[in-house]
Amino acid sequence: MKILTIDDQQLILLSVEKRLTELGYDVMTADSGQKGIELYDSFQPDLVLVDINMPDISGLEVVKHIKGGERNATPVLVMSGNTEEAIIMDGFTLGIDDYMKKPVSLSEMSARIKRLIGAPVVELKTEISTGGRMLQKNCVGVVIPCYNEEERLSGTE
Prior knowledge:
Helix content: 25-40%
Mean pLDDT: 84
Number of helices: 5
Radius of gyration: 20 Å
Order of helices and strands: EHEHEHEHEHEEEE
CATH architecture: 3-Layer(aba) Sandwich
Strand content: 25-35%
Structural class: alpha/beta
C-alpha cells in the first residue's frame, strides 16, 4: 500500500516516513504542495497525508487537486498545526477523510491510517544465520518438533 506524505517540515517527513516504512507501507514524501501534486499524479498513492500551511501551495489546494481528479476516492488525512475551525471545516467540505492536530502522535496516526486503508500485507522474509539455520521473521505460526511429531502453534499461543 502506497502513502504520499506532503509537509514542508523535514523532521516530520523523516519521522512519518520511518514509522510508516517500519509498518510495511511504501512511502513517498514531498516537501512542498507543488511537488506533492506532481508526486500524487505519478505515484498514485492509496492515501495522502498533507499539511495545510505550506509556503508555495496550501494543503487545501492539494486536497482540491486530489478530490477534483479522476481518482477522487483517494483518502486524505490532514495533519496540521492550524486549529482554526473555519479552515478545518473547509477541509472537510473539500472531502478530507480525517484531521489530526500537530504535534502528531505516530501511534495515533498509524491507527487512523489503518482505519482508512487497512494494514499492509507484510511478506515473509528469510535469513540464514551464521549457524546455518534458516530463520524466518514475521511468522504467524511456528512449527516445533515434539515427540517426533510437529505441532503448529497459532500466533496467540
